[in-house]
């Protein structure tokens, strides 16, 4: 078990180093800083549209903010777990390590989960600060801590759920796995557009949180079914039957690689009409 933990941490460190090199160290425009500024501006604008509730409604405001936070972090957690996992688990530089060496895929899966913790923690902290504006002082700062903890837990469970979905999707139907990104992308754009229209028409985050509080049972049940339970099932499966999860990931990886090799095979027969000798025929034949 100690070997799996140390290898998982090594995988996570390699991912952190790669992100640092890509976004900061070797990026001429410092893409990481630009992304942090964009996130901060979005949250700042959102806070401006989140007036605090009355002191006697502080508890209701906190429950509404918690519902909104968990819903948002769960959705983006499962989306990033699925989309980023496709590159990390099937195309990354470390993938051959778990094909040609005795290294266990369990460490690879856990390492990718650990790698996602800093990004999820930072994003959750920003939005927790924004949503805490709904709660009037002096209860805002305890609410900030509670929102951050709940959002981080929901986001990491959802990230686990995204990896679980990807692992089993790649095992049983890898031909359509790439369509999952389209599904998540379209729904995310639709929700962002709806939120933008809502805020531009005079709506506020406080009103949205109170509305979601009224529908809290349905929202929390949906989150548990879509994000929480699959993530917990993966965590339990990794502890109880890790070989079962590893075999699904390994079989799915082979299927994805086979599909990739089939996509690169092209027919050597030319579909151009026969032409006479000359430069044009040589160029077309080469194409």
Number of domains: 1
The helix count comes to 12
Backbone shape = globular
- What fraction, in percent, of the residue positions are helical? over 70%
Mean pLDDT value: 82
* Secondary structure: number of strands: 0
Structural class: mainly alpha
Order of helices and strands: HHHHHHHHHHHH
Architecture overview:
With 287 residues, the protein is mainly α. The chain has one domain. Helix content is 79%, strand content 0%. It has helices at residues 2-25, 31-48, 58-90, 97-100, 105-115, 117-131, 140-172, 179-200, 205-214, 216-240, 242-264, 279-286. Helix 10 crosses helix 11 (242-264). It is globular. The N and C termini lie far apart (54 Å).
How do the strands and helices of this protein lay out in sequence?
Layout: H1 2-25, H2 31-48, H3 58-90, H4 97-100, H5 105-115, H6 117-131, H7 140-172, H8 179-200, H9 205-214, H10 216-240, H11 242-264, H12 279-286
Helix pairs in contact: 1-5, 2-6, 3-5, 3-6, 3-7, 3-8, 3-9, 3-10, 6-7, 7-10, 7-11, 10-11
Summary tags:
287 residues, mainly alpha
Give a concise summary.
The chain is an all-alpha fold and 287 residues long.
């Amino acid at each position: 078990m100690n070997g799996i933990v140390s290898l998982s941490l090594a995988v996570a460190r390699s991912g952190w180093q790669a992100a640092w090199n890509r976004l900061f160290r070797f990026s001429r425009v410092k893409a990481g800083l630009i992304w942090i500024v964009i996130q901060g501006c979005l949250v700042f604008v959102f806070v401006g549209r989140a007036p605090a509730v009355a002191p006697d409604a502080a508890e209701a405001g906190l429950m509404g903010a918690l519902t909104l936070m968990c819903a948002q972090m769960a959705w983006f957690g499962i989306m990033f777990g699925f989309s980023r996992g496709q590159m990390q688990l099937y195309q990354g530089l470390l993938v051959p390590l778990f094909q040609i060496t005795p290294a266990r895929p369990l460490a690879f899966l856990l390492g990718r989960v650990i790698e996602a913790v800093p990004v999820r923690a930072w994003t959750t902290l920003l939005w927790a600060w924004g949503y805490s504006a709904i709660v009037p002082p002096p209860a805002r700062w305890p609410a900030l801590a509670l929102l951050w903890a709940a959002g981080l837990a929901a986001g990491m469970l959802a990230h686990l759920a995204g990896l679980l979905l990807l692992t089993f999707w790649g095992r049983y139907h890898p031909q359509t796995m790439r369509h999952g990104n389209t599904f998540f992308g379209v729904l995310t754009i639709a929700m962002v557009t709806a939120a933008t229209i809502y805020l531009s028409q005079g709506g506020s985050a406080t009103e949205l949180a109170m509305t979601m509080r009224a529908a809290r049972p349905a929202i929390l049940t949906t989150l548990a079914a879509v994000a929480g339970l699959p993530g917990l099932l993966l965590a339990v499966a990794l502890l109880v039957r890790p070989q079962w999860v590893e075999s699904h990931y390994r079989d799915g990886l082979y299927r994805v690689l086979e599909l990739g090799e089939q996509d690169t095979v092209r027919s050597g027969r030319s579909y151009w009409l026969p032409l006479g000798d000359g430069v044009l025929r040589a160029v077309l034949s080469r194409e």
